Amino acid sequence: MMIHINVFLLLLLCLITSTHSSPTNSRLSNYESIRALDESGQSIQLQHASQAALQQGNLILAVKHDNSTIHLISIAQPSVLHTITPTTFLTCSGVQADARWLIETLRSMHQHMQLQYGSTGSHWAQRLAALYRAVFWGVSEENTKWQHVRNIKQWGRPLGVSSILIEGTRLYALEPSGVIVSSNRLAIGKHSPEILRQWPGNDDTLADQLKAACHTILPRGTVLSIQQVGTNDSWQLQL
Ligand SMILES: *[C@@H]1O[C@H](CO)[C@@H](O)[C@H](O)[C@H]1NC(C)=O
Ligand SMILES: *[C@@H]1O[C@H](CO)[C@@H](O)[C@H](O)[C@H]1NC(C)=O
Q1: Is the pTM above the cut of 0.85?
Q2: Which residues make Cβ contacts (< 8 Å) with residue 104, sequence separation at least 6?
Q3: 232 alpha carbon to ligand 2 midpoint, in Å?
Q4: Most buried residue, 19, 32, 39, 189, by most Cβ within 10 Å?
Q5: CB within 6 Å of ligand 2 — which residues?
Q6: pLDDT: is 138 or 235 the higher one?
Q7: Which listed ligand is nearest to 232 at the C-alpha?
């Protein structure tokens, strides 16, 4: 509970900061000024949202092996993998209300595509990135190519969640800025950069890799849950 209150306060702070610093000109110049700030790496709101997702979010790791099997790893409980399409899954870390909104919006995009075109759609990481951006910056021209994003209202603050999206056998991670990282090894939430940095090569078993990756970062005795995507198989590993 305390954690959620902290995240909420941080976001509230971002909101207040933005209200005070926003020029009262047209929406367009507002949009451009925030984006310009981001391009030079200076957007305070995005930094706060990223910090909140990083420091307060549950740690979730994803790894794709050479045989294309994908495992998700989290602390104690298996992370909840939300089905977007029959082959697209999303897991989030950070502010739960924002995560719920993302999941519901993506599901409704999928439902719309099914009804309208009889298609499950593709490029879900790009669609997800378009949502992150539309919420913060408003709908831009590049975004309007994605059905549904056109109707998104600008919130005036970034989403306080990081997410991992699995589309088929591809893995993507998204930050509150909407930047997409694609890799066979991803991590979001607390300690994720440090763990990625010391994750060893592929030669060891998954258990040995995880032990090495988490060494000195997570306390000894921490229990990790490992689940295999596309099955109901999950097991636990004690560090
Ligand atoms: C693929 O490789 C991983 C890691 O070595 C292993 O855990 C998993 O069982 C393998 N999957 C299949 C279907 O062989
Ligand atoms: C996993 O479990 C659910 C509910 O128990 C079941 O409906 C589903 O078919 C299972 N999936 C697989 C791949 O076994």
Answers
A1: no
A2: none
A3: 6
A4: 189
A5: 231-232
A6: 235
A7: 2
